[in-house]
Amino acid sequence: MSKRLLKFIVNGRKAEVAVEPHHTLASVLRNELNLTGTKVGCDMGTCGCCTVHVDGKAKLSCLTLALECQGTEILTIEALNEYEMHPLQRAFAECGGSQCGYCTPGFIMKSCELLERNPDPTREEIKEALAGNLCRCTGFMKIYDAVEQAAGELRKKEAPQPTPLKV
Amino acid sequence: MTMLLPKFELHQPATLDEAVALAALHVDDCDLLSGGTDLLPNYKCGLNAHRNVISLQHIAELKHIDAHSIGAGVTLVDIERNADVPRSIANCAAHIASPLLRESGTLGGNLMLDNRCHFFNQSYFWRRSLGYCLKANGDRCHVVPQINEGGKSVLNDKVCVATHSSDLAPMLIALGAEATFVSSAGKRTIKLNDFYWGDGIERYERKPGEILVQVTLPKWAHEVRSGWKKLAPRQSIDFSVVGVGAALDLDGDKVKALRVALGAVDTTPVLFDFSQHEKRKAPGHYLLVDPYKNMPEVIGKKLDDALIETVAKHVQTQAQPKLNVPMAPDYRRKMCGVLTRRLLTELRDNNR
Predict the structure, then answer these.
(1) Domain count, chain B
(2) Which residue of B has its CA nearest to A42?
(3) Residue B351: pLDDT over 80
(4) Which CATH number goes with the domain that contains B303?
(5) In terms of DSSP bridges, do strands B211-216 and B242-251 run parallel, antiparallel, or are they unpaired?
(6) Which of A127, A158, B97, B181 has the fewest other C-beta atoms within 10 Å?
(7) Residues belonging to chain A with any Cβ–Cβ distance to chain B shorter than 8 Å
(8) Would the pLDDT of B14 be above 60?
(9) Chain A residue nearest residue B42, CA to CA
């Protein structure tokens, strides 16, 4: 049960962390790498707050063991805005899709994955994709509006590639 | 709220042989981890945690999927998006949990899902305050505290009635799937229906150190009409509280074969094979469902509304949901009949 070296790429930068086998990806990102944008809500896989991208797939970091991410590429919410806000983030702010803001990183990471897969989703497809994220403030409608607005904006121009975060 | 995982040693074999060797080495004290969406929440609650966890995520042999066999390590998303497997299986996979959980969760994990109960899936603090239950650390069942033994009512310290909530298991059982296991003793193929047996603790016959490799579908599964219906408090995230899978083979409008499998009403999936070719072993206890008691004659008859009603009535009568997952048992029992009726009507009217 000793610590092992975990080498992976977080937001475009190489990272090496010594982690214990029972550490989750969420705890390593937040506690070791200080990327506290990723929130931990229920810690049981229900709420979707802790969503990050592991090799391009939106996964729950609270139910992913850190050592299982050996050699993978992780994107967190911090990757989306280096110089300016990502269209998704701007749309969430403009449409009121974020109120207390705790669930927002999870929503944005999941909808980011959805828009990469499907640049022009219907309302139903958005609902379907975000079915695993819980928001207790907005009532979801403003979130769906925000994703639709961001999808329109992203279709208009070349999507900004997620850029490395400078710490 | 951060919940800490208990300490364990993580093994990450890259091949199936290594995994089998590791499982044999730590046979008394290990768990297999695939997606982790069921195991890790249980670990976080301190439920039957072991000191060794063998991860099956990096084993390529388990990730094969085609029309007739699905590897145990295939994620639910991949099953959902696969065009070759029967539509009913893809549809069933698409309604498990939430999109985020399906991204991690695998077929093997779904089939080996731990049973669920109000008194089991709780935090350590919660369980300590009531007194532990039969399934974790305790010596009595809180759902069925008394059982009848030799005409006397005695404390239930024997039968765990935790509910088996897997969605794919009843669907695959209805289609007559077989599961292949490997262990250091060799390979074993067993009908999924024979695999599930026993109470909420035992729940399946997995021999020590065995690893599920793949599930094989018979040719029959592609030829018949099959479908899946599920009842859950919310459409996403929640475990099903009633699941009905059915496979229906029609000869004109006469029933050639009919298999209905219920999920989440018993400690294992329950198969109602109306041709009675594949009987489940006797349930072992009167608290568990016996599907073949007073089974109506269906084969060779015309599948009209009256016959569907008879089948639905039988399924509803035999199902015995307990008060240990959300929603009242009475309601869930009625829904077993309702969902069966809807599903069979749908299968009869829509060709596939």
Answers:
(1) 1
(2) B1
(3) no
(4) 3.30.390.50
(5) unpaired
(6) A158
(7) 1, 20-24, 27, 40-46, 48, 51, 57-60, 63-65, 67-68, 70, 110, 128-134
(8) yes
(9) A44
* Residue B260 falls inside a structural domain: yes
Q: Kindly report which listed range (A15-19, B182-186, B283-287) carries the lowest average pLDDT score.
A: B283-287
**Does the pLDDT at position A165 exceed 90?**
no
Contact indicator for B241, B328 with CB cutoff of 8 Å: no
B12 C-beta neighbours (distance < 10 Å), count:
21
Q: Is the pLDDT of residue B322 over 70?
A: yes
Contact with chain A for residue B104, Cβ under 8 A: yes
How far is the alpha carbon of B315 from chain A, nearest alpha carbon, in Å? Answer: 31
Whether A31 shows a pLDDT value over 90: the answer reads yes
Q: B236 CB near a chain A CB, below 8 Å?
A: yes
The distance in angstroms from the start CA to the end CA of chain A is 31
> Which token pair is B196?
């599930």
Our CA-based measurement puts residue A25 at a distance from the nearest CA of chain B, in whole angstroms, of 12
Query: Would residue B226 count as lying in a domain?
Result: yes
The answer on pLDDT for A64 being more than 60 is yes
What is the percent of chain B with per-residue pLDDT over 70, rounded to a whole number?
99
Q: Which residues of B touch A129 (CB under 8 A)?
A: 99
Residue B217 DSSP SS3: coil
Residues from chain B contacting residue A65 (CB–CB below 8 Å): 10, 33, 36, 40, 55
b/e string for B80-109 if b means 16 or more Cβ within 10 A? bebeebbebbbbbbbbbbbbbbbbbbbbbb
Structural domain boundaries in chain A: 4-77, 87-156
For the domain made up of A87-156, give the CATH fold. Answer: DNA polymerase; domain 1 (1.10.150)
Structure tokens at A147: 């994703």
Domain that holds residue B291: 222-349
> Is B16 a domain residue?
no
The CATH architecture of the domain made up of A4-77 is Roll (3.10)
A42, A45, A57: residue with CB nearest B101: A45
* Residue carrying structure tokens 């390593």: A28
| pLDDT for the residue A166 | 58
Residue A17 pairs with which residues in a beta bridge?
A: A6
Q: Say yes or no to pLDDT of B290 above 90.
A: no
Q: Indicate whether A159 pLDDT > 60.
A: no
